[in-house]
Every structure is written in structure tokens, then in C-alpha cells.
Amino acid sequence: MGLNRRLRTVIDAGLRGDHQADVEALGKRLPNFIIIGAAKSATTTLTTILPRHPDIFISHPKEPKFFGRRYDKGWEWYGRLFKPGKSCKLRGEGSTMYASALKSFAQAPALMHRYLPELKLVYVVRDPLKRIVSQWRHRKGRQPRTRDFQHLMSSRHLRRLVVGCSLYYERLQSFRQFYPDSQIHCLTFEDLIAAPRPTLTGLLTFLGASTAPEQVELLLDQGALPRVNEAGDKGRILVAEPEWSDKLRRQALEVVRPDAEQMLAYMGKPLNSWEL
After folding, report:
1. Which pTM does this prediction carry?
2. How buried is 246 (Cβ within 10 angstroms: 0-12 exposed, 13-18 middle, 19+ buried)?
3. What is the mean pLDDT of residues 153-182?
4. Mean pLDDT score of the chain, rounded to an integer?
């Protein structure tokens, strides 16, 4: 989805710095961390459990989608989302579209850095093929006219939207142009599921929240990571998990494997962490 003329004009003004006074007037009614994606990688789970921690507030809605298609709503609108958490040490949101390939969010990293240069960014990633399946099911459940899974690589729209969101390293580079690695924390869906305590402790340490054991436990349900926003939730049609044909799997891997290997190397994880 592109930008209409009015939104393009407002974003251009933002990139010039025309909204600095509006931002300064908001003070602590702004986030100091954002979960930027990736979609279908437990981001909704994180924004659901993090507010259980006494140091952390998450906006409602958790996906304001402000730094893109809603930027014309203005900083006062954005600031109101964080007003209830102004006394919290950490205030965040989780708009996964910020790390998407959508043109309407292409300026998200630049807009964020222009006004929130100290922002901390959290990027959750997942085995790319499994994430693709999950996003396609999510989309098909919401929009039944979405093309069948076997058209994944032949449909220009699905390839850009669904496959594009699995190009993690490519998407991350747009943020690394503006933010140093010290302000970026990457973690995996698989580690969240398999080792939730150390993974969440690492995230809390990065954010600057207390890592007292009893507060880490607040984020878990009987020691396990809660699962939310599953296929079929929120009134979506439950779409059966599709099968990869050998040809389709090969075509998809040709696109995502080089990027996935770069992303795993960046995170310091073995290349066999995902099924590539």
C-alpha cells in the first residue's frame, strides 16, 4: 500500500524535523522502546506479557502503526496512547509493520530516529519458512480471497508481503542505518518457546527492567510462555496448515536462505538453528 498525497506531505515534514516542538511537548508520554517485528513471531505474546512487569507499560492498541500510514494522526494522538504509562520506567509498543516491506512504512526507521534517537528496538525472528506459513494462514483467515499457498512465489503481492517479511537481515538493515547495534536486541521465537526464562531475562536486561526472578516469573504461565494470537483467534477463519511442495519449498529457500544465514550470523547463532 502506497501513500496518499496528504500523508506523504506530513511524513516529508516530519523527516525535515518540523514536528520537534510537538514531540518535546509530550515529555514522558512517548515510548522508549518498540518491538518492530517480525509478524507471526510471538510479538503479540510479548506485548501481552510484558505489562505484567511493574516497570513496563505497553500502549493500547499495541500496534499504533504510527510511523507510517497513521503518521498524519499527529504526535498528540500518539502521545495519548502512552499517557497512562508516563510514570512507568519503560513504555513501549509493538507495530510489526515497521519492519515490513510495505511502502507505507518505508520511512519508519528515519522518522523514529529523527525524534526518538535513544529508542531501543526489539526484533523477534523465527524460522523463515514457518513464519511464512503462519502469516499466510493469518492473512487467509482474515481475507478469504487471498490466493492459495501454492501461488506464494508466483503472486507478486504475496511474495512481497509474506515472503518479504521473512527477509529479516534485509529489513533490519533499514534500522541499522540509524540506530547502533547497542540499541537493537534480536531474539528468536524458538528460544522464547524452548528457554523462556533466560530469553526473557536477556530482553529485560536490554530494556533496563528489573530481572529479579519473581518478576521474570510474572511473565510466564506456570513456567511456560503463554501462546496468544494463534491461527483462528480473534474471529479469524481457521485455515489448515498448507503443505510445501518440493518445488515451492526450493523456490522459497532460494530467496530466504542467504538472508536467514546472514541474520543467524548477526545474532551469533548456528546456521542449523533453522531448517534451511
Report:
1. 0.94
2. exposed
3. 95
4. 94
* Domain residue ranges in the chain: 5-273
Interval 63-110: pLDDT, tens:
999 999 999 999 999 999 999 999 999 999 999 999 998 899 999 999
Q: How does strand 184-188 pair with strand 33-37?
A: unpaired
Cis peptide before 61 (omega within 30 of 0): yes
Burial degree of 25 (CB within 10 A; 0-12, 13-18, 19+): exposed
- What lies within 8 Å, CB to CB, of 196 at 6+ separation is 219, 220, 223, 224, 225
Q: How many CB atoms lie within 10 A of CB 34?
A: 26
Nearest by Cα to 47 from 11, 85, 100: 85
Place of cell 514531540: 23
pLDDT at site 3? 76
Task: Report the Cα 232 to chain-centroid distance in Å.
Answer: 20
Q: Strand, coil or helix: what is 250? A: helix
For residue 232, pLDDT beyond 50: no
Domain 5-273, CATH among 3.40.50.300, 3.50.50.60, 3.40.630.10, 3.40.640.10: 3.40.50.300
